[in-house]
Design goal:
The protein has 71 residues and is mainly beta. The chain has a domain of 37 residues. Helices cover 10% and strands 25% of the residues. It is built from 1 helix and 5 strands; from the N terminus they run ββββαβ. The chain has a 3-stranded antiparallel beta sheet, covered by helices on one side. It has a two-stranded antiparallel sheet with strand order 1-5. The longest helix has 7 residues. The termini are far apart. The N terminus is likely disordered.
Length: 71
């Protein structure tokens, strides 16, 4: 009699393996065109989504502290 060995390819999801980059498509008025801005502040905007994703802060697993709002 032969016994079968089962191998699992499943991986466990660890919260530390999740990284979020928050970019939103917006309309930039200075040079009228669609652009992509970092959330939540919208102060950093880029021409392409890939530029935005490369430059915006990462949430891994927590987002960096925001600067206090003057309002």
């Amino acid at each position: 009699m032969r016994t079968a060995r089962t191998m699992s390819n499943a991986t466990t999801l660890d919260a530390s393996n999740v990284t979020l980059v928050l970019c939103q498509r917006r309309y930039c008025y200075e040079e009228p065109h669609d652009c992509y801005c970092c959330l939540p502040e919208f102060s950093l905007c880029y021409n392409t989504q890939s530029e935005c994703r490369a430059a915006c802060p990462r949430c891994n697993p927590k987002c960096p502290a925001q600067s206090p709002s003057p309002f």
